[in-house]
Design a protein that fits this description.
Elements: H1 2-18, E1 32-38, E2 50-55, H2 65-80, E3 82-83, E4 93-99, H3 105-118, H4 124-134, H5 138-147, E5 157-162, E6 173-176, H6 185-196, H7 207-222, H8 224-239
Parallel strand pairs: 1-3, 1-4, 2-4
Antiparallel strand pairs: 2-5, 5-6
């Protein structure tokens, strides 16, 4: 009985995922999704195709669910997105930026190395995540939220618009991940990578369903035992079996 219930829940989630339409991801000029850091006072690269940003509205309390979500975002940003080749000539990229309070990237990297040197048990990857969070530029992030009239969102938020345009233009891609479980942030970034390379004309197609799917999966995972018990009961009633 539990197997049937599990299959039913899985099928429902899969069906919702199949309903998501994100448009034509195989357009000839599809850019490559990459990541980069944006120091304070530095404008995004005007020659690339898409400007994207990781946005947090404020500092989160240590140990809170929000801080866990923030850390998962930093880890996924580093691990799932390919670093941009700033020395290369390929500008057919969709860049997602992490906003930094430092004035230049060398200062940021030196601070990470200092963390590693100060504690032999801390590796460069861990130090990178820690410093990404501590050096985040919340003031600039809130300026971006103001530009797109998205006040009241805590974040994490993934935000993008065409580089030839600006935040006040018609096409703005907006992913609100503030309700996504920390362990599902990587799936949210996979969805982000799939959307940000599309034609901006179809950017918002399927976004809400995409986030709803992540939210539903998180709810199912968090309440699996209760949901399976309810499914068992309903199946027993439907088949006339005893529920004892």
């Amino acid at each position: 009985m539990k197997l049937a219930a599990t299959i039913a829940l899985g099928f429902f989630t899969l069906t919702l995922g199949m309903c998501i339409s994100v448009g034509d991801s195989n357009r000839p000029d599809s850019p490559m999704p990459v990541r980069d850091f944006l120091p304070r006072g530095t404008p995004p690269d005007a020659e690339v195709m898409i400007h994207g940003f990781v946005v947090f509205a404020g500092v989160e309390e240590q140990g809170s669910l929000e801080s866990q979500r923030q850390r998962a975002t930093a880890e996924t940003f580093l691990n799932l997105l390919t670093a941009v080749d700033n020395d290369g000539e390929n500008k057919d990229v969709a860049v997602t930026y992490w906003l930094l309070i430092e004035d230049d990237l060398d200062t940021h990297l030196d601070a990470i190395q200092a963390r590693v040197d100060a504690d032999p048990e801390v590796n460069f990857s861990q130090a990178s995540v820690d410093h990404l969070i501590e050096s985040y530029d919340y003031a600039r992030a809130n300026e971006l939220l103001t530009l797109v009239n998205k006040h009241g969102f805590r974040g994490p938020i993934l935000l993008a618009w065409p580089a030839y345009s600006d935040a006040e233009a018609e096409h703005v891609l907006f992913f609100d991940l503030s309700r996504v479980r920390p362990e599902d942030i990587d799936d949210a970034f996979v969805a982000w990578k799939r959307h940000i390379v599309l034609d901006p004309e179809v950017w918002q197609n399927g976004v809400q369903l995409e986030l709803a799917r992540l939210g539903l999966r998180g709810f199912i995972n968090a309440n699996a035992e209760m949901l399976l018990a309810r499914c068992d009961l309903l199946l027993a009633i439907a088949t006339g079996q005893s529920t004892d």
